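User: I'm new to structure prediction. If I give you an amino acid sequence, what do you actually give back? Let's try with this one:
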Amino acid sequence: MNIFKDVKQAVDTREVAEVYGLEVNNSGMAICPFHDDNNPSMKVDERYHCFACQADGDVIDFVANYFELSKIDAAKKIAKDFGIEYQSVGYKKHKSVKQIKRPKPIRKEISVDNEFNKRIPTYNNILCEYKVLLESYKTIFKPSESDDDLHPLFVKAITNLDRIDYLMSMVNGTTEEKILVVMDYGKEIVNYEKIIRTIKSRIA
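Assistant: Good question. You get back a string of structure tokens that encode the predicted 3D arrangement of the chain. For your 204 residues, that looks like this:
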């Protein structure tokens, strides 16, 4: 059997990272060990991704970078430490895995563009503009007492305004909240931008 395939089937990045000493919070965020990180900027689950230094990869990549090993040596280390058998019989995880000595994180300075810091102001502008649009819907299509049915755009406004306020509070919140916006809600916010552009193109 392929050691790389067997290792990745047996364990995920978060499981391995925590055993090797990385502290991951309930949101799956951790202090990145690959740059001088003061706030949790790395998302760790099946894979890992740092929104600050852009470190990214799977469980084998993480261990290779963490211990400065080649990928094959990283895979062998995981297999040994976690009792993963990669012969034809498949793999097993030993119960003694918690006894592994946890080394201190190895930190590296990585000079890259901070894409995270670029996205937040853009997302904030999109949300502000979309909120203005929804507020206009709410005013323009407010039903009168004689109306039997609510206008779809009025319904859209009252349905989505609370959502936009929530996202705006996160965009302007803590570093961890901003990271979660980029990680979990980026596509949603980009869709709002597309709606705004479509409306502007119709008006022009």
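You can read the tokens as a compact description of the fold. Here is one thing that stands out. The CA atoms of residues 46 and 69 lie 20 Å apart.
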